[in-house]
Specification:
This protein is an alpha+beta fold and 163 residues long. The protein is built from 3 helices and 8 strands, in the order H-E-E-H-E-H-E-E-E-E-E. A hairpin with a 2-residue loop joins strand 6 and strand 7. The termini are far apart.
Length: 163
Amino acid sequence: MSRREIENELFDAFEPLVRKAGVELLDMELLSEGKRTILRATIFRPEGVTLDDCVAAERIISPVLDQIDPIPGSYNLEISSPGLERTLRRDKEYEVFAGKPCQVNLYAPVNGKRVFRGVLAGLRPGDGGESEKVLISTDEGDMAFDRKNVSKVQLIYTDEDLD
């Protein structure tokens, strides 16, 4: 099984379980840092993630991982908050972080630019042969980028995040 398949399988298994602890599971990511393998579970609450939230999620996830043993070799489980400048990876994050400042990086330029800053408005599903769109509001107006042309969407830290 590929790394991404393991991540998706674990995400699907743990999302409803973690929700019972009062937090949303945003992502499960399998990382290699040097010789260490890390399984990072990213959790979210609109009010902010506390240490108690991380402990509660760990107490749900860890025993199940020990039972199903989905990852070959040894690994460390990390539970984290999304962070202020998170790179979005899953569709649900576009809904969770709608209304937040972001930067969209493109593979191919649009209107002569590859980088746009604005406020995340979400995702629009593709229909009738049209591709899925990443939506942001910018100073130049509302923009819709083909998702296939988007290399990265990253949240931008602002002073409002301190409130």
